[in-house]
Amino acid sequence: MSSPPHPSRPPPPARPVAIAGCGAHVPARVLTNRDLERMVETSHEWIVERTGMRERRIAADHEATSDLALEAARKALQSARLAPADVGMIAVATITPDHPFPNTACLVQSRLGARHAFCVGLEAACSGFLYGLEMARRLVETGAVPNALVIGAEKMSAILDWKDRSTCVLFGDGAGAAVLKPAPAGRRGILSTVLGSDGSLADLLYLPAGGSRRPASAATVAAGEHYLRMRGREVFRHAVTHMAQAARTALHRAGLGIQDIRWVIPHQANLRIIAAIGERLGCPADRFIINVERYGNTSAASIGLALDEAVRDGRIRDGDLVLMVAFGAGFTWGASVLEWIQPT
Ligand code: UT7
Q1: What is the pLDDT of residue 13?
Q2: pLDDT at residue 14 in the model
Q3: Rounded distance from Cα 283 to ligand 1 centre (Å)
Q4: Engineered SS bond to 72: which of 25, 118, 150, 267, CB 3.0-4.6 Å?
Q5: Measured in angstroms, how far is the CA atom of residue 164 from the centroid of ligand 1?
Protein backbone atom coordinates (compact mmCIF):
# COMPACT_ATOMS: atom_id res chain seq x y z
CA MET A 1 0.00 0.00 0.00
CA SER A 2 1.49 3.40 -0.87
CA SER A 3 1.78 5.94 1.95
CA PRO A 4 -0.16 9.20 1.72
CA PRO A 5 1.86 12.12 0.36
CA HIS A 6 3.81 14.07 2.98
CA PRO A 7 2.17 17.49 3.44
CA SER A 8 5.44 19.33 2.89
CA ARG A 9 6.27 17.45 -0.31
CA PRO A 10 6.26 19.89 -3.23
CA PRO A 11 3.67 19.20 -5.90
CA PRO A 12 4.91 17.36 -8.98
CA PRO A 13 6.26 19.75 -11.60
CA ALA A 14 3.46 21.11 -13.71
CA ARG A 15 3.84 20.67 -17.43
CA PRO A 16 3.37 23.81 -19.50
CA VAL A 17 0.17 23.94 -21.50
CA ALA A 18 -0.31 25.98 -24.66
CA ILE A 19 -2.99 27.06 -27.07
CA ALA A 20 -2.28 24.74 -29.98
CA GLY A 21 -4.82 26.23 -32.39
CA CYS A 22 -7.77 28.57 -32.54
CA GLY A 23 -10.86 29.28 -34.62
CA ALA A 24 -13.81 31.65 -34.79
CA HIS A 25 -17.15 32.06 -36.49
CA VAL A 26 -19.67 34.87 -36.84
CA PRO A 27 -23.11 34.76 -38.46
CA ALA A 28 -23.49 36.37 -41.88
CA ARG A 29 -26.05 39.08 -41.07
CA VAL A 30 -24.57 42.52 -40.35
CA LEU A 31 -26.59 44.96 -38.24
CA THR A 32 -25.24 48.51 -38.58
CA ASN A 33 -25.77 51.53 -36.35
CA ARG A 34 -27.85 52.99 -39.16
CA ASP A 35 -30.09 49.91 -39.03
CA LEU A 36 -30.48 50.46 -35.28
CA GLU A 37 -31.49 54.08 -35.89
CA ARG A 38 -34.57 52.67 -37.61
CA MET A 39 -35.37 50.41 -34.63
CA VAL A 40 -34.84 52.58 -31.52
CA GLU A 41 -34.22 56.23 -30.66
CA THR A 42 -30.45 56.27 -31.17
CA SER A 43 -27.83 57.55 -33.60
CA HIS A 44 -24.77 56.20 -35.32
CA GLU A 45 -22.84 59.11 -33.82
CA TRP A 46 -23.92 58.35 -30.22
CA ILE A 47 -23.06 54.68 -30.53
CA VAL A 48 -19.63 55.36 -32.08
CA GLU A 49 -18.77 58.06 -29.55
CA ARG A 50 -19.93 56.15 -26.44
CA THR A 51 -18.85 52.61 -27.46
CA GLY A 52 -16.71 52.58 -30.62
CA MET A 53 -19.17 50.13 -32.22
CA ARG A 54 -20.21 50.48 -35.86
CA GLU A 55 -21.81 47.14 -36.62
CA ARG A 56 -22.39 43.72 -35.10
CA ARG A 57 -23.36 40.25 -36.38
CA ILE A 58 -26.79 38.81 -35.69
CA ALA A 59 -27.60 35.11 -35.99
CA ALA A 60 -30.51 33.98 -38.14
CA ASP A 61 -33.65 32.75 -36.39
CA HIS A 62 -32.71 29.14 -37.12
CA GLU A 63 -29.11 29.55 -35.83
CA ALA A 64 -28.44 28.74 -32.18
CA THR A 65 -25.35 29.17 -30.03
CA SER A 66 -24.21 25.58 -30.68
CA ASP A 67 -24.27 26.24 -34.45
CA LEU A 68 -21.84 29.14 -34.02
CA ALA A 69 -19.75 27.15 -31.53
CA LEU A 70 -19.54 24.17 -33.86
CA GLU A 71 -18.05 26.20 -36.73
CA ALA A 72 -15.47 27.85 -34.45
CA ALA A 73 -14.61 24.45 -32.95
CA ARG A 74 -14.05 22.84 -36.35
CA LYS A 75 -11.63 25.59 -37.33
CA ALA A 76 -9.77 25.38 -34.02
CA LEU A 77 -9.38 21.59 -34.32
CA GLN A 78 -8.14 22.00 -37.89
CA SER A 79 -5.55 24.59 -36.88
CA ALA A 80 -4.39 22.40 -33.96
CA ARG A 81 -4.38 19.30 -36.21
CA LEU A 82 -6.53 17.42 -33.73
CA ALA A 83 -9.13 14.88 -34.85
CA PRO A 84 -12.54 15.14 -33.15
CA ALA A 85 -12.22 11.55 -31.89
CA ASP A 86 -9.05 12.50 -29.99
CA VAL A 87 -10.55 15.45 -28.06
CA GLY A 88 -10.44 14.83 -24.29
CA MET A 89 -12.71 17.57 -23.06
CA ILE A 90 -15.05 20.22 -24.46
CA ALA A 91 -16.01 23.32 -22.46
CA VAL A 92 -18.54 25.77 -23.85
CA ALA A 93 -18.73 29.10 -22.06
CA THR A 94 -22.00 30.86 -22.76
CA ILE A 95 -24.89 32.75 -21.16
CA THR A 96 -27.09 31.98 -24.16
CA PRO A 97 -27.11 28.16 -24.25
CA ASP A 98 -29.37 26.43 -26.78
CA HIS A 99 -31.39 25.08 -23.81
CA PRO A 100 -31.13 25.31 -20.01
CA PHE A 101 -29.96 21.69 -20.34
CA PRO A 102 -28.31 19.63 -21.70
CA ASN A 103 -25.19 21.76 -21.78
CA THR A 104 -24.23 23.22 -25.13
CA ALA A 105 -20.87 21.39 -25.12
CA CYS A 106 -22.75 18.06 -25.37
CA LEU A 107 -24.56 19.35 -28.45
CA VAL A 108 -21.28 20.44 -30.03
CA GLN A 109 -19.66 17.10 -29.13
CA SER A 110 -22.35 15.12 -30.89
CA ARG A 111 -22.10 17.11 -34.11
CA LEU A 112 -18.30 17.10 -34.08
CA GLY A 113 -18.15 13.36 -33.44
CA ALA A 114 -15.86 13.93 -30.45
CA ARG A 115 -17.15 10.79 -28.74
CA HIS A 116 -14.29 10.42 -26.24
CA ALA A 117 -14.63 13.94 -24.82
CA PHE A 118 -16.42 14.80 -21.61
CA CYS A 119 -18.45 17.98 -21.93
CA VAL A 120 -19.03 20.85 -19.58
CA GLY A 121 -21.03 24.06 -19.75
CA LEU A 122 -19.60 27.14 -18.13
CA GLU A 123 -21.47 30.28 -17.15
CA ALA A 124 -19.17 33.20 -16.40
CA ALA A 125 -20.57 35.67 -18.93
CA CYS A 126 -17.90 37.74 -20.70
CA SER A 127 -15.12 36.13 -18.64
CA GLY A 128 -16.25 32.64 -19.67
CA PHE A 129 -13.54 32.03 -22.26
CA LEU A 130 -10.74 32.79 -19.78
CA TYR A 131 -12.47 30.76 -17.05
CA GLY A 132 -12.72 27.86 -19.48
CA LEU A 133 -9.10 28.14 -20.59
CA GLU A 134 -7.84 28.10 -17.00
CA MET A 135 -9.98 25.18 -15.86
CA ALA A 136 -9.12 23.16 -18.95
CA ARG A 137 -5.46 24.09 -18.68
CA ARG A 138 -5.31 22.61 -15.17
CA LEU A 139 -6.83 19.35 -16.37
CA VAL A 140 -4.35 19.11 -19.24
CA GLU A 141 -1.49 20.08 -16.93
CA THR A 142 -2.25 17.24 -14.51
CA GLY A 143 -2.67 14.75 -17.34
CA ALA A 144 -6.36 14.20 -16.50
CA VAL A 145 -7.11 14.88 -20.17
CA PRO A 146 -4.66 14.85 -23.09
CA ASN A 147 -6.11 18.07 -24.57
CA ALA A 148 -9.13 20.31 -24.34
CA LEU A 149 -11.37 22.29 -26.68
CA VAL A 150 -12.56 25.53 -25.09
CA ILE A 151 -15.27 27.53 -26.84
CA GLY A 152 -16.87 30.87 -25.99
CA ALA A 153 -20.10 31.25 -27.96
CA GLU A 154 -23.12 33.51 -27.74
CA LYS A 155 -26.36 34.36 -29.44
CA MET A 156 -26.78 37.58 -27.44
CA SER A 157 -29.46 38.75 -29.88
CA ALA A 158 -31.77 36.13 -28.32
CA ILE A 159 -31.77 37.82 -24.89
CA LEU A 160 -31.88 41.48 -25.95
CA ASP A 161 -34.88 43.75 -25.64
CA TRP A 162 -34.89 45.26 -29.11
CA LYS A 163 -36.90 48.18 -27.75
CA ASP A 164 -34.29 49.09 -25.10
CA ARG A 165 -31.72 51.40 -26.67
CA SER A 166 -29.48 51.26 -23.59
CA THR A 167 -28.66 47.58 -24.22
CA CYS A 168 -29.70 46.44 -27.70
CA VAL A 169 -27.07 48.50 -29.52
CA LEU A 170 -24.22 46.97 -27.51
CA PHE A 171 -24.17 43.25 -28.20
CA GLY A 172 -23.59 40.84 -31.05
CA ASP A 173 -23.40 37.11 -31.81
CA GLY A 174 -20.36 34.94 -32.51
CA ALA A 175 -18.00 32.23 -31.31
CA GLY A 176 -14.29 31.78 -30.61
CA ALA A 177 -12.51 28.53 -29.81
CA ALA A 178 -9.09 27.31 -28.72
CA VAL A 179 -7.45 23.90 -28.36
CA LEU A 180 -5.17 23.35 -25.38
CA LYS A 181 -2.36 20.81 -25.47
CA PRO A 182 0.86 20.24 -23.52
CA ALA A 183 3.38 22.78 -24.82
CA PRO A 184 6.15 21.55 -27.13
CA ALA A 185 9.47 20.86 -25.36
CA GLY A 186 11.21 24.05 -24.30
CA ARG A 187 8.15 26.26 -24.88
CA ARG A 188 6.12 27.97 -22.19
CA GLY A 189 2.56 28.45 -23.44
CA ILE A 190 0.28 29.82 -20.72
CA LEU A 191 2.41 31.57 -18.09
CA SER A 192 -0.11 32.80 -15.56
CA THR A 193 -3.83 33.28 -15.04
CA VAL A 194 -5.84 35.12 -12.42
CA LEU A 195 -9.60 34.75 -12.01
CA GLY A 196 -11.98 36.58 -9.66
CA SER A 197 -15.66 37.09 -8.89
CA ASP A 198 -17.93 39.35 -6.83
CA GLY A 199 -21.48 38.05 -6.55
CA SER A 200 -22.58 40.97 -4.37
CA LEU A 201 -22.95 43.05 -7.53
CA ALA A 202 -24.92 40.46 -9.49
CA ASP A 203 -27.94 42.70 -10.04
CA LEU A 204 -26.01 45.29 -12.04
CA LEU A 205 -26.04 42.96 -15.05
CA TYR A 206 -28.42 40.03 -15.18
CA LEU A 207 -31.40 38.35 -16.74
CA PRO A 208 -34.31 38.40 -14.28
CA ALA A 209 -36.59 35.54 -15.36
CA GLY A 210 -36.49 32.12 -16.93
CA GLY A 211 -34.49 30.46 -14.15
CA SER A 212 -35.66 28.82 -10.93
CA ARG A 213 -35.99 32.18 -9.11
CA ARG A 214 -38.59 33.41 -11.54
CA PRO A 215 -39.62 30.65 -13.92
CA ALA A 216 -40.86 31.83 -17.30
CA SER A 217 -44.56 32.65 -17.29
CA ALA A 218 -46.93 34.80 -19.30
CA ALA A 219 -46.38 37.53 -16.68
CA THR A 220 -42.54 37.47 -16.91
CA VAL A 221 -42.71 37.54 -20.69
CA ALA A 222 -45.19 40.44 -20.61
CA ALA A 223 -42.83 42.34 -18.29
CA GLY A 224 -39.84 41.68 -20.56
CA GLU A 225 -38.01 39.90 -17.76
CA HIS A 226 -36.42 37.37 -20.08
CA TYR A 227 -34.22 40.13 -21.50
CA LEU A 228 -30.77 41.19 -20.29
CA ARG A 229 -30.73 44.14 -17.86
CA MET A 230 -27.69 46.28 -17.24
CA ARG A 231 -26.81 49.37 -15.24
CA GLY A 232 -24.21 50.45 -17.77
CA ARG A 233 -22.48 53.27 -15.96
CA GLU A 234 -21.77 51.22 -12.83
CA VAL A 235 -20.68 48.20 -14.85
CA PHE A 236 -18.29 50.43 -16.80
CA ARG A 237 -16.56 51.59 -13.61
CA HIS A 238 -16.12 48.09 -12.19
CA ALA A 239 -14.98 46.74 -15.56
CA VAL A 240 -12.10 49.20 -15.76
CA THR A 241 -11.01 48.69 -12.15
CA HIS A 242 -11.10 44.89 -12.17
CA MET A 243 -9.61 44.38 -15.62
CA ALA A 244 -6.68 46.68 -14.88
CA GLN A 245 -6.07 44.98 -11.53
CA ALA A 246 -6.39 41.45 -12.93
CA ALA A 247 -3.95 42.32 -15.72
CA ARG A 248 -1.41 43.66 -13.23
CA THR A 249 -1.70 40.56 -11.06
CA ALA A 250 -1.35 38.17 -14.00
CA LEU A 251 1.73 40.07 -15.20
CA HIS A 252 3.21 40.00 -11.71
CA ARG A 253 2.66 36.25 -11.41
CA ALA A 254 4.34 35.73 -14.77
CA GLY A 255 7.31 37.85 -13.64
CA LEU A 256 6.66 40.33 -16.46
CA GLY A 257 5.93 44.02 -16.91
CA ILE A 258 3.48 45.55 -19.38
CA GLN A 259 6.47 46.58 -21.54
CA ASP A 260 7.15 42.86 -22.19
CA ILE A 261 3.70 42.32 -23.66
CA ARG A 262 3.40 42.50 -27.45
CA TRP A 263 -0.40 42.26 -27.63
CA VAL A 264 -3.24 42.87 -25.20
CA ILE A 265 -6.54 41.18 -26.07
CA PRO A 266 -9.22 42.82 -23.94
CA HIS A 267 -12.86 41.83 -23.70
CA GLN A 268 -14.53 43.94 -26.39
CA ALA A 269 -17.30 45.68 -24.41
CA ASN A 270 -16.57 49.31 -25.16
CA LEU A 271 -13.68 51.18 -26.80
CA ARG A 272 -13.67 53.65 -23.91
CA ILE A 273 -13.22 50.82 -21.39
CA ILE A 274 -10.31 49.50 -23.46
CA ALA A 275 -8.75 52.97 -23.61
CA ALA A 276 -9.12 53.41 -19.84
CA ILE A 277 -7.39 50.06 -19.21
CA GLY A 278 -4.58 51.07 -21.55
CA GLU A 279 -4.10 54.28 -19.58
CA ARG A 280 -4.08 52.48 -16.23
CA LEU A 281 -1.61 49.88 -17.44
CA GLY A 282 0.56 52.39 -19.28
CA CYS A 283 0.13 50.43 -22.51
CA PRO A 284 -0.09 52.24 -25.86
CA ALA A 285 -3.27 51.80 -27.90
CA ASP A 286 -1.41 50.20 -30.83
CA ARG A 287 -0.66 47.14 -28.71
CA PHE A 288 -4.35 46.32 -28.24
CA ILE A 289 -6.22 43.90 -30.49
CA ILE A 290 -9.55 45.62 -31.10
CA ASN A 291 -12.52 44.54 -33.20
CA VAL A 292 -15.39 45.99 -31.15
CA GLU A 293 -16.24 48.29 -34.07
CA ARG A 294 -17.24 45.26 -36.20
CA TYR A 295 -18.69 42.79 -33.71
CA GLY A 296 -19.86 44.77 -30.66
CA ASN A 297 -19.82 42.93 -27.35
CA THR A 298 -20.05 39.19 -28.02
CA SER A 299 -19.71 38.28 -24.33
CA ALA A 300 -17.94 34.91 -23.90
CA ALA A 301 -17.01 34.83 -27.61
CA SER A 302 -15.20 38.15 -27.55
CA ILE A 303 -11.61 37.23 -26.64
CA GLY A 304 -11.52 34.04 -28.71
CA LEU A 305 -12.85 35.95 -31.71
CA ALA A 306 -10.21 38.67 -31.38
CA LEU A 307 -7.42 36.14 -30.76
CA ASP A 308 -8.29 34.14 -33.86
CA GLU A 309 -8.52 37.24 -36.03
CA ALA A 310 -5.12 38.52 -34.93
CA VAL A 311 -3.46 35.11 -35.35
CA ARG A 312 -4.89 34.61 -38.83
CA ASP A 313 -3.98 38.09 -40.09
CA GLY A 314 -0.42 37.67 -38.82
CA ARG A 315 -0.36 40.30 -36.10
CA ILE A 316 0.24 37.73 -33.36
CA ARG A 317 3.40 35.82 -34.19
CA ASP A 318 5.33 32.92 -32.74
CA GLY A 319 6.97 33.91 -29.46
CA ASP A 320 4.81 37.01 -28.85
CA LEU A 321 3.76 37.54 -25.26
CA VAL A 322 0.01 38.09 -25.12
CA LEU A 323 -2.15 39.38 -22.26
CA MET A 324 -5.86 38.53 -22.33
CA VAL A 325 -8.20 40.28 -19.91
CA ALA A 326 -11.95 40.03 -19.35
CA PHE A 327 -14.83 41.25 -17.20
CA GLY A 328 -18.49 40.30 -17.12
CA ALA A 329 -21.73 39.63 -15.30
CA GLY A 330 -21.48 37.99 -11.92
CA PHE A 331 -19.32 39.97 -11.59
CA THR A 332 -16.54 37.82 -12.96
CA TRP A 333 -13.13 38.81 -14.25
CA GLY A 334 -9.87 37.28 -15.34
CA ALA A 335 -6.51 37.83 -17.01
CA SER A 336 -4.05 35.45 -18.58
CA VAL A 337 -0.53 35.84 -19.96
CA LEU A 338 0.82 33.47 -22.56
CA GLU A 339 3.62 32.99 -25.01
CA TRP A 340 2.02 32.42 -28.40
CA ILE A 341 3.20 29.25 -30.11
CA GLN A 342 2.32 29.31 -33.79
CA PRO A 343 0.70 26.03 -34.86
CA THR A 344 2.86 24.30 -37.50
O1 UT7 B 1 -19.61 42.92 -21.21
C2 UT7 B 1 -19.99 43.02 -19.89
C3 UT7 B 1 -19.72 44.29 -19.35
N4 UT7 B 1 -20.46 45.35 -20.00
C5 UT7 B 1 -19.87 46.52 -20.08
O6 UT7 B 1 -18.73 46.60 -19.72
C7 UT7 B 1 -20.65 47.72 -20.53
C8 UT7 B 1 -20.30 48.87 -19.64
N9 UT7 B 1 -21.02 50.10 -19.88
C10 UT7 B 1 -20.88 50.83 -21.00
O11 UT7 B 1 -20.22 50.45 -21.93
C12 UT7 B 1 -21.53 52.20 -21.03
O13 UT7 B 1 -21.94 52.55 -19.74
C14 UT7 B 1 -22.72 52.29 -22.00
C15 UT7 B 1 -22.24 52.22 -23.43
C16 UT7 B 1 -23.70 51.15 -21.71
C17 UT7 B 1 -23.45 53.62 -21.82
O18 UT7 B 1 -22.55 54.70 -21.98
P19 UT7 B 1 -22.52 55.87 -20.90
O20 UT7 B 1 -21.60 56.87 -21.39
O21 UT7 B 1 -22.23 55.24 -19.57
O22 UT7 B 1 -23.98 56.42 -21.01
P23 UT7 B 1 -25.08 56.54 -19.87
O24 UT7 B 1 -25.63 55.18 -19.54
O25 UT7 B 1 -24.53 57.35 -18.76
O26 UT7 B 1 -26.18 57.36 -20.66
C27 UT7 B 1 -25.93 58.66 -21.14
C28 UT7 B 1 -27.14 59.13 -21.90
C29 UT7 B 1 -28.46 58.89 -21.17
O30 UT7 B 1 -29.27 60.01 -21.40
P31 UT7 B 1 -29.44 61.13 -20.27
O32 UT7 B 1 -29.98 60.41 -19.07
O33 UT7 B 1 -28.06 61.68 -20.05
O34 UT7 B 1 -30.41 62.08 -20.89
C35 UT7 B 1 -29.04 57.70 -21.88
O36 UT7 B 1 -30.44 57.68 -21.85
O37 UT7 B 1 -27.23 58.43 -23.15
C38 UT7 B 1 -28.55 57.90 -23.30
N39 UT7 B 1 -28.49 56.68 -24.07
C40 UT7 B 1 -28.54 56.67 -25.41
N41 UT7 B 1 -28.65 57.65 -26.33
C42 UT7 B 1 -28.65 57.30 -27.62
C43 UT7 B 1 -28.35 55.42 -23.63
N44 UT7 B 1 -28.31 54.57 -24.67
C45 UT7 B 1 -28.43 55.33 -25.79
C46 UT7 B 1 -28.44 55.03 -27.16
N47 UT7 B 1 -28.56 56.05 -28.03
N48 UT7 B 1 -28.33 53.77 -27.64
Answers
A1: 47
A2: 73
A3: 25
A4: 25
A5: 11
pLDDT of residue 344: 85
User: Does residue 236 line the site of ligand 1, with CB under 6 A?
Assistant: yes
Cα dihedral across residues 44, 47, 51, 56: positive or negative: negative
Q: Give the pLDDT confidence score for residue 3 in this predicted structure.
A: 46
Q: Of the residues 236, 271, 274, which should be mutated to test ligand 1's pocket, given the most ligand atoms within 8 Å of the CB?
A: 236
What is the Cα–Cα distance from 243 to 266, expressed in whole angstroms? 8
Sign of CA dihedral 309, 315, 319, 322: negative
CB distance 169 to ligand 1 below 6 Å:
yes
For ligand 1, atom 28, the nearest C-alpha belongs to 166
- Ranking 9-18, 93-102, 150-159, 321-330 by mean pLDDT, the lowest is 9-18
Given a contact cutoff of 8 angstroms between Cβ atoms, the answer to whether 73 and 117 are in contact is no
Could you tell me if the CB of 194 is within 6 A of ligand 1?
no
Pairing relationship of beta strands 173-182 and 148-155 according to DSSP bridges: antiparallel
Radius of gyration of the chain (CA): 20
Q: Are 245 and 331 in contact (CB under 8 A)?
A: no
Closest ligand 1 atom, residue 297 Cα: 1
Report strand pairing: 17-25 vs 55-58: unpaired
Instruction: Tell whether ligand 1 has an atom less than 6 A from the beta carbon of residue 243.
Output: no
pLDDT in tens, 268-310: 999 999 999 999 999 999 999 999 999 999 999 999 999 999 9
Per-residue pLDDT at 7 exceeds 90: no
Residue 232, ligand 1, Cβ within 6 A: yes
Whether the predicted pLDDT of 9 surpasses 90: no
- Ligand 1 mean position, distance from CA 326 (Å): 20
Q: CA 4 from chain center: how many Å?
A: 39
Give the residue numbers annotated as catalytic, written as ranges.
Answer: 126, 267, 297
Tell me the per-residue pLDDT of 70-80, one tens digit each, with 9 for 90 and over: 999 999 999 99
Helix (H, G, I), strand (E, B) or coil at 32: strand
Sign of the dihedral defined by the CA atoms of residues 67, 73, 78, 79, in that order: positive
